[in-house]
Amino acid sequence: MSTPILEMRDISKDFDGVHALSHVNFSVAEGEIHALVGENGAGKSTLMKILSGVYPHGSYGGGIHYRGQEARFADTRAAQDSGIAIIHQELNLVSGMTVAENIFLGREPNRFGWVDWRRMRAEARALLDRLGLDFPPETPVSSLSVGQCQMTEIAKALSQKVDLLILDEPTSALTDPEIERLFELLFQLRSQGVTSIYISHKLEEVFRLADTITVLRDGRAVGTWARDETDPRRVVAAMVGRDISDLFPWQTRSAGDPALEVEGLTVTDPSAHRPILDNISFALRAGEILGVAGLMGAGRTELAGSLFGVPPGKLVGKVRVNGAPVEIRHPLDAIRRGIALLTEDRKQSGLLFNLSIAKNITLAALDRVASGPMLNPASERALAADYAGRLTVKSANLANLVGTLSGGNQQKVLLARWLATEPRILILDEPTRGIDVGAKVEIYRLMIELARAGLAILMISSELPEVLGMSDRILVMREGRIAGELSREAASEEEVMHLATGVAKAA
Ligand SMILES: Nc1ncnc2c1ncn2[C@@H]1O[C@H](COP(=O)(O)OP(=O)(O)OP(=O)(O)O)[C@@H](O)[C@H]1O
Ligand SMILES: [Mg+2]
User: Fold this and answer.
1) Which of 178, 295, 313, 396 has the fewest beta carbons under 10 Å from its own?
2) By the 8 A CB rule, do 232 and 201 touch?
3) Which CATH class is domain 4-240?
4) Cα–Cα distance, 270 to 250 (Å, whole number)
């Protein structure tokens, strides 16, 4: 192994009593791609925030040795000046500004003291080209997709000299072509001698990219392996502290009456060249888990929104809930009919970051904790504690702000919120995105338990193993239509991809 560019020694960090990190040693060789993996709350982001100056020298135990010298970063700027750039798990762009302004925020190129807009745009354009992004630098970030925002963050990180690039779960919101582009870029950076630290829950990515893999568990480093000396199964075992043999706890169930029937659902937007949703019909039974597969842009998230009262255009078609025709014009109509939707993006349309974990859980179920117009704080706390417990949300205190939770635990809070409304129809859009294997299995078990209790579940997922492993039946969408339906027995990755892409199967 070549010389380390970085050695973090004996790092410890507490958050009011919670040991986020205890005596972690972490060493990274110059020029490698080093993956950092571990369950939700294992301490990955915290370790990287220490390295990048978010938590300054003095706020943690232990020391950082970078390029052979002790580094005592007072802030993120000091780390940046040493060539360390971080792309955070949560997006940090300023929504009122353009892409170019965000990329150069605080470091705008200037000419005689004035911002040199022309140069700024030209440099931004060059960066976007390097990432294969075709939107103009003048685009306001508020009109970008989540994936485009993430790519803009990456452009921002690369806009200055970088020797060590930290990526904290960069791909959770990216489309497949964007992911491929990012991987190419990381390999290219490696060939130029740039070192990367890559955090991901997707082990296929980790095994494709990384030269070395370090596993954190409960705030401790439990091992570091060269990629070629280990395998996904051993890494998972190190992450969760046990062997997971049964990732998908699926079992046969008997389905009941139709809970949700959709007939001829069509959503149009005059500015689009084709309907967003085109004549969608299907039925979902109580106790059933119906998977919805498809490529990015096939209309799956739009279907979820349309069923939840937020269609992305003009909606026609019939919807029946428990056999009765319904008009769902607003999320409140949906909630009243027993429909719950877990959205794919927790930051933009889910969590309220200025509220506590408990409030975020009880938010949609206030009628369960109120007597008349008054909230009953004790029953609110009890309800929150009940669902936090069922979903094993890892937190010291439910009164803490929801933003203090790790990413995966935030996802569990959102799921808890919807389960607290006691829905009969649960729509899950990418339910395990950004969630570690251990928590995934917990969520799968919970889904099975809920389905057995009679809940009808519509599960949208881009992860084929998850769709195949958890669905009783699978709808495959393509370009706003249902391209086909597969029974659990008939479904395979190849069949799903065939329907999703319209490309014929290999002979
Ligand atoms: N600002 C904070 N205040 C209080 N506790 C915190 C804070 N940041 C992190 N923690 C706690 O420290 C622990 C480690 O969190 P961290 O965010 O580093 O985990 P992670 O490995 O990045 O998880 P994930 O995969 O879910 O992103 C968790 O128990 C978390 O709740
Ligand atoms: Mg994290």
Assistant:
1) 396
2) no
3) alpha beta
4) 42
> Is 20 touching ligand 1 by the criterion CB < 6 Å?
yes
Residue spans per domain, the chain: 4-240, 258-501
Contacts of 150 (CB under 8 A, 6+ apart): 87, 91, 170, 173, 174, 178
Place of tokens 């010291």: 396
CATH node for 258-501: 3.40.50.300
Ligand 1 atom 17, closest CA: 406
46 Cβ below 6 A of ligand 1: yes
Asked whether the predicted pLDDT for residue 371 surpasses 80, the reply is no
Ligand 2 mean position, distance from CA 297 (Å): 27
Looking at residue 376, the DSSP 8-state letter turns out to be -
- Cα separation, 65 vs 26, whole angstroms: 10
What's the predicted TM-score (pTM) here?
0.68
Asked if residue 388 lies in contact with residue 417, where contact means CB atoms within 8 angstroms, the answer is: no
- What pLDDT digit, counting tens, does each position of 124-156 carry? 999 999 888 889 999 999 888 877 888 899 899
Tell me the C-alpha distance between 398 and 386, whole Å: 11
Ligand 1 centroid – CA 46 distance (Å) = 6
Q: Which ligand is nearest to the CA of 435?
A: 1
Contact at 8 Å (CB) between 82 and 71?
A: yes
